[in-house]
Design goal:
Layout (H helix, E strand, L loop, with lengths): L1 E5 L4 H13 L4 E6 L19 E5 L5 H8 L4 E4 L6 H6 L2 H21 L3 E5 L24 H20 L3 E6 L2 E2 L8 H10 L4 E4 L5 E3 L1 E2 H14 L5 E4 L4 E3 H12 L6 E4 L14 H4 L9 H14 L1 H10 L1 H7 L4
Parallel strand pairs: 1-2, 1-4, 2-3, 4-5, 5-6, 6-11, 7-10, 8-13
Antiparallel strand pairs: 9-12
The structure holds nicotinamide-adenine-dinucleotide (NAD) and 2'deoxy-thymidine-5'-diphospho-alpha-D-glucose (DAU).
């Protein structure tokens, strides 16, 4: 199988590339990645010299670039995105361009290449905040922040390409991922980074917002399954099944690092903050998938991984210095 992975130098992308190279001998993986602040060759360092992996630096918003990268591909896993909600609040420009326009370019390139599968990686955030029963795939999309709105727009466009053009699109809707190589602007690695430096942890609002954590290894297994066995035109929820209020997650981080709870500081809330995400993933379960990584041991191992990779965190956070200064000023 010849596979194009967009965003393969990011958090989930690099884990997915490693997973597919380990699980499928007869595969050629081409990564297309712009190497924004969030992406780095560092994240793929241990597999970059695998002859089955090819790295192309380029922007999915450029039609010629993405068409050339998709040329000869049997399938595409589309992960490239501006993935951070807080950044999309400061400015939605990059998210609109990459997540919506860039996805459009990927869908066009997939048509031109005649791929057998396009796995479009969306998010649980497209459903909006969950105030009742966990969302199922047929629920309406009601995104509430600029990031999730761009992702929902791309989901609709992807589905339209299935209906109108017969593009064999499968949509994945994963919940909050955690694990190695996550860029340290997201809750878990960011708070590990701050706690290691004895800096306060800026908890938005009361910290009782609920997230359903999915280990990135479980996620990658689900993505490979959907790539090979997902039904075209269908969407699939992927959850960890571990709903936790943020404060409970933060307390585990502090405990694992041996740091005091006094580092917690409640700050101004994120505008449009979704209070809870929750999904039913039984449609994916029917294909034989279930999460395997147990939450508490998974997060503790993840915290230790970040603590053991301080040089990597140093380089990654240096790339985001201006953002951290702007967003956390006064928080
Ligand atoms: P990430 O920010 O860690 O990585 C994104 C990657 O995309 C980076 O390598 C970046 O360089 C690349 N990229 C960005 N813009 C690009 C462009 N214009 N052209 C080419 N490459 C570009 O993100 P992630 O957490 O790995 O998320 C991957 C995908 O999964 C995204 O689509 C995201 O919306 C989705 N998702 C993430 C989570 C999560 O918890 N991290 C949960 C659900 C869904
Ligand atoms: O649910 C899936 C989504 O999960 C993905 O689509 C996104 O790409 C990914 O970034 C993530 O979005 P969240 O907004 O849920 O993740 P984040 O790590 O930014 O925040 C997790 C929770 O922690 C959220 O309730 C906000 C809170 N938080 C986060 C940060 C960075 C804080 O309280 N303080 C912080 O400084």
């Amino acid at each position: 199988m010849r596979l194009l992975v967009t965003g393969g130098a990011g958090f989930i992308g690099s884990n997915f590339v490693r997973h597919v190279l380990a699980e499928r001998r007869d595969v050629h993986v081409r990564v297309l990645d712009k190497l924004t602040y969030a992406g780095s060759r560092d994240n793929l360092a241990d597999v970059l010299d695998d002859a089955r992996l090819e790295f192309v630096e380029g922007d999915i918003c450029d039609q010629a670039t993405v068409e050339s990268a998709a040329d000869g591909a049997d399938a595409i896993v589309h992960l490239a995105a501006e993935s951070h909600v807080d950044r999309s609040i400061i400015s939605a420009e990059a998210a609109v361009q990459t997540n919506f326009v860039g996805s459009f370019r990927v869908f066009e390139a997939a048509r031109a290449a005649g791929v057998q599968r396009l796995l479009h990686v969306s998010t649980d955030e497209v459903y909006g905040a969950c105030l009742g029963e966990p969302f199922v795939e047929t629920d309406p999309l009601e995104p509430r922040n600029p990031y999730s709105a761009t992702k929902a727009g791309a989901d609709h466009l992807a589905h339209s390409y299935f209906v109108t053009h017969g593009l064999p699109v499968v949509i994945a809707r994963p919940s909050n991922n955690y694990g190695p190589w996550q860029y340290p602007e997201k809750l878990i690695p960011f708070f590990v980074w701050r706690a290691l430096r004895d800096e306060h942890l800026p908890v938005y609002g009361d910290g009782m917002q609920v997230r359903d954590w999915l280990h990135v290894e479980d996620h990658c297994r689900a993505l490979l399954l959907l790539l090979e066995r997902g039904a075209p035109g269908e969407a699939y929820n992927i959850h960890g099944g571990d709903e936790r209020p943020n404060l409970a997650t933060i307390r585990i981080i502090l405990d694992e690092l041996g740091k005091p709870e006094g580092l917690i500081r409640h700050v101004e809330d994120r505008p449009g903050h979704d209070v809870r995400y929750a999904m039913d993933a039984s449609k994916l379960g029917a294909l034989g998938w279930e999460p395997r990584v147990e939450w508490e041991s998974g997060i503790r191992a993840t915290v230790r991984w970040f603590a053991e990779h301080r040089d990597w965190m140093e380089r990654a956070t240096a790339r985001g210095k201006a953002y951290f200064e702007e967003w956390y000023a006064g928080r």
